[in-house]
Fold each of these.
Amino acid sequence: METFDAIVVGAGPTGLACGIELQQRGVKAVLVEKGCVVNSIYHYPTHMTFFTTPELLEIGNLPMTSLNDKPNRTEALKYYRRVAEHYRLDIRQYERVDRIAGEDNAFQADTTDRLGCRHVYRARKIVLATGYYDVPNPLDAPGEELDKVLHYYKEAHPYYNHDVAVIGGKNSAAIAALELCWTGARVTLIHRGPGISDGVKYWIKPNIENRIKSGEITGYFLSRVVEIQKDAIRVSTPEGEISLRNDFVFALIGYRPDLTFLNSTGITLEPDTLRPRSNPETLESERPGIYLAGVIVAGMHTNEIFIENGRFHGCLIAESIASKLRHA
C-alpha cells in the first residue's frame, strides 16, 4: 500500500496540469490512468489537426512548437510526453480505478493494472480528471452491438471499396465522411438534424456540403438508423423507411462522462444537466476532499470545456489542496 497527499484519476492534459500544479506546491501526488498518457488524444483520428493554436494547448509553462499554425495529433502526443518527462510525474498507466472509499484526509483507492494485479493507495485528497471520451452516446438501435459498428474513427484506409455509413452531423462525422470518401469508400451520412451542424469548422462545412450536393457522399437528413443488420441498415427518412447495403457503421454522435463512476464515488449531479455540483472557486465537489477537473465539470454540456480552458483547473485545485494540507 502506498500513501500520497493526492491521487489524480486521469492523465489527460487536465490531469497532467493538476499533477504539475500539485508538485509545484509540494504536494505528493500520483496520477492513475486506465489507458496511456493523454489516452483520449491517442484515440483521435491519426491525421487529425487541432482547431486551435499551440500556445492554447500548453501546460506547465512549457512551450509547444508546431510546423504549422495548428498542431496535429502526433505533435500533441510528443508534447505531452515531453511534459510528463520534464516534470517526472508519477503516472501509473494502464491501471483502472475500481473504487474510491473513505473520507476527506483518509481516502482509499483500489485499482487494477493491465496484468490483473490489484493495488491500494491511500491519499488525503482525490482529483477526478477522467474526461468524457470513453463513453460513446448510444444509437439505441437494434444491432448496435455488432462488431461492424464503431464509435471511434482512426483512419480511412481499411474501408476502401466498402459501403460505410457515418452517423452524425458535427465535426467528427464530417471529417470522417470526407476522408472515407477521398479514400474510396462509398459513404452515406445520416443525421437527425436538418443539415450539417452550423458548429462544423468553416473550412470543413462547405466541403462536406459540396460532396453531398455533387452526390459523392449520399446524405440523409432528418433521418435516423432504426436497425443495423450484418450486411445492411434500415433508416427512417422523411420519405419513409429505406434499407441500405452496409459493411461498416461509424456512430459519431458524441460522448459523455462516465456517470456510473462519478456516482460510485458519491458525486451528486444536477438532474437536468448531469453537471456535478462543485465549488466554482476551488472545484471541490459536495463530497469533501474530492475535486473535479476538466470536462466532467460541465456534465452533459461537454462543449463548454476543452483543453484550452480545462488546463487552468489544475491551479485552482492545487491552491485549495495545498492550503488545506498546510492548515490541517
Note: Residues 73-86 form the longest helix (14 residues).
Amino acid sequence: MRLTGAAFLAAITGVLVCGPARADWVPPFKGNDTGGIISYSLVGQSDIRALAIDHCARYGKVVKFLGAQPHPGGYISFACRWVPYGANERPLRTRY
C-alpha cells in the first residue's frame, strides 16, 4: 500500500515538474470603468487614443493617459476620469 502511494506521489510530482509553465494570456485591449491597458503592439495598427476615448465614453467619463512601456510586450495604461484635471465645470451626476 505504501509503495503504491509513493509511486502515485512520484508520478504526480513528475507531471507537475515537467509540465509546461505558462503565464495567463492578456488580450491586446482590456479595461473597465476605472481605466485599462492597451498593448504597445497596437500603436502602428490602430488609433489607440480613439480606442481609449470610446472605452471611457461608454461610462460617461474622459480619458487620461498614465504611462507607456515603449518596447515589444509593453502596455499603455489609461484612466477614466469623471472630469478632466483643471476643468471649471461641475462633476457629472449619474442616477442609478
Note: Strands lie at 29-32, 35-39, 62-68, 75-81.
